[in-house]
Amino acid sequence: MAAVHPHLPAWEAVLSPDERARAQRYRQAPDAARFVVGRGLLRLLLAHCLGLPARGVALAPRAGKPMLQQSQEGQHFNVAHSGEYVLVALAPGPVGIDVEQIADYDPHCRAVAQRSFAPAEYAWLQQADVPAEAFGKLWTRKEALAKAVGTGIDAHWPHLPSLDGAQVLPPSPGFAGRNWAVHSFAAAPGYAAAVAHETAAWANHPPLFVDVDASLLDIAAG
After folding, report:
1. What CA–CA distance (Å, rounded) separates 77 from 49?
2. In this protein, which residues make up the domain named 4'-phosphopantetheinyl transferase N-terminal (predicted)?
């Protein structure tokens, strides 16, 4: 996890020319900053895993998302951002991560919850002491699992379980029947976050959560 705004020029320095040009096309400065830090953090982490310089990581867009080119495949990753933070997940198998800035649990959120959550999830939400935090927890779990499985926010969304951490998804047109684990974690005050992964891929490697700051940039430059 990295904060968006500190050391922005240093993050930008590790991007490819195409990525820097894309950042300049964003109309809103906060959106550009999130892209720069997210892509820079992804490059630095992948570079560490692959034993390459950050600019030597070959990323290519595929279905609107960055993917490793075939010569560097074997490392799975996912990126999420919200508000002031960017999160990157690396894993030996399919992985999904999500972070959301917690907002008020207003009538719009209640309508989204009724439409998007299973009856048991909605009932749990209605009984929560802090509904806004409970909504964020359920939503980020579903989003992380959807990204790991490869489905979108569609008709299958209410069927993606989010009440506990061990998920078994039965075979269906929306997703493959495999075992998954979902972990909620404290990204920062006022944020909800979750990461989802196949249990088999991480059987001997429980998730490790790390905050990243400018020291990573110093290491990469040195």
Report:
1. 11
2. 13-89
pLDDT digits over 14-70, tens only? 898 998 999 999 999 889 988 998 898 898 888 888 888 888 888 877 766 777 876
Assigned superfamily of 98-198: 4'-phosphopantetheinyl transferase domain (3.90.470.20)
- The rounded distance, in Å, linking the Cα atoms of 89 and 5 is 20
Q: Report the candidate in 2, 93, 100, 98 with the shortest Cα–Cα distance to residue 45.
A: 2
Helix ranges (DSSP H) in the chain: 8-13, 17-25, 29-50, 107-116, 119-126, 131-149, 214-221
Rounded CA-CA distance 136/22 in Å is 30
- Per-residue model confidence as pLDDT tens digits over 78-103: 999 998 888 999 888 888 999 999 98
Any idea where the domains of the chain sit in the sequence? 2-92+209-221, 98-198
**CA nearest neighbour of 199 among 165, 162, 152, 158:** 165
pTM: 0.83
State whether CATH 3.90.470.20 applies to domain 2-92+209-221. Answer: yes
Show the tokens assigned to 60.
Answer: 């290519």
Cα torsion for 165, 76, 192, 122, to the nearest 10°? -50
